[in-house]
Amino acid sequence: ETGVTQTPRHLVMGMTNKKSLKCEQHLGHNAMYWYKQSAKKPLELMFVYNFKEQTENNSVPSRFSPECPNSSHLFLHLHTLQPEDSALYLCASSPGLNKNIQYFGAGTRLSVL
Amino acid sequence: QQQVKQSPQSLIVQKGGISIINCAYENTAFDYFPWYQQFPGKGPALLIAIRPDVSEKKEGRFTISFNKSAKQFSLHIMDSQPGDSATYFCAAPGGSSNTGKLIFGQGTTLQVKP
Q1: Which residues sit opposite A31 in a β-bridge?
Q2: By the CB < 8 Å criterion, does A43 face chain B?
């Protein structure tokens, strides 16, 4: 248990569905991150939040919509996804942006049909 | 686009042997260089990390060697065990300081044979 919990662990959705991924960290950290992990590719940073304010959007398509209501919770809202969006979506947290040691959750395995 | 080049892509080592994974980075070294270990179906777990003002850090069987002038760093796993079989990722600070960003290598799949 890393202190970062992601739900659901697995998700199958159609291209017209709307779903949300949830991440919660119990480490008292102030920064949270969303990553996409696809086979044979490095982890791709999607979004960064610091004290619940977005500080980075790595040119992510608008069909991915993040939400950070507080420093402990992070959501990724999904709508009208494409099959190529199928991947493992990982959430991570770090003490702050001034220390880049990040702790990851187990991820949500997403399949878009 | 900053990159971290990691090699080899895959590695097979006999039990008790030494596993060595290398990474090269492009950015300025201003923050931690962590290594992560990932088992199938799990998220990456922090293994060991080093600051750029240190040339070596050892934790148990795991050692990071850091060469700031060459912009290279490596992970050495001594006395490799079958339980070490996993995918290993190196990461380097990305962007500018105080962004918290990490740039990851492509990963090395390690198989330790009994």
Answers
A1: A50, A94
A2: yes
Check pLDDT > 80 for residue A111.
yes
Residue of A55, A100, A102, A109 for testing the chain B interface, max B β-carbons within 10 Å? A100
> If we measure between CA atoms, which residue out of A96, A45, A39 comes closest to residue B103?
A45
- Rounded to the nearest angstrom, the minimum Cα separation between B25 and chain A is 14
Please state, in angstroms and rounded to a whole number, the distance separating the CA atoms of residues A110 and A93. 20
pLDDT at residue number A107: 97
Q: Which pLDDT belongs to residue A32?
A: 97
Q: Distance (Å, rounded) from C-alpha B34 to C-alpha B92?
A: 7
At B45-98, the pLDDT tens digits run 999 999 989 999 999 999 999 999 999 999 999 999 999 999 999 999 887 777
Nearest CA in chain A to B35: A101
- pLDDT reading at B41 higher than 90: no
User: Quick one: which of A8, A20, A9 has its CA closest to A77?
Assistant: A20
CA-nearest of B3, B39, B38, B40 to B23 is: B3
Q: Which amino acid is at B70?
A: A
Cβ contacts of A48 on chain B, cutoff 8 Å: 99-101
> Residue B96 corresponds to which amino acid?
S
Residue owning tokens 């017209």: A16
pLDDT-based confidence at residue A38 (cuts at 50, 70, 90)? very high
Cβ contacts of A104 within 8 Å, gap of 6 or more? A2, A4, A35, A90, A91, A92, B36, B43, B44, B45, B46
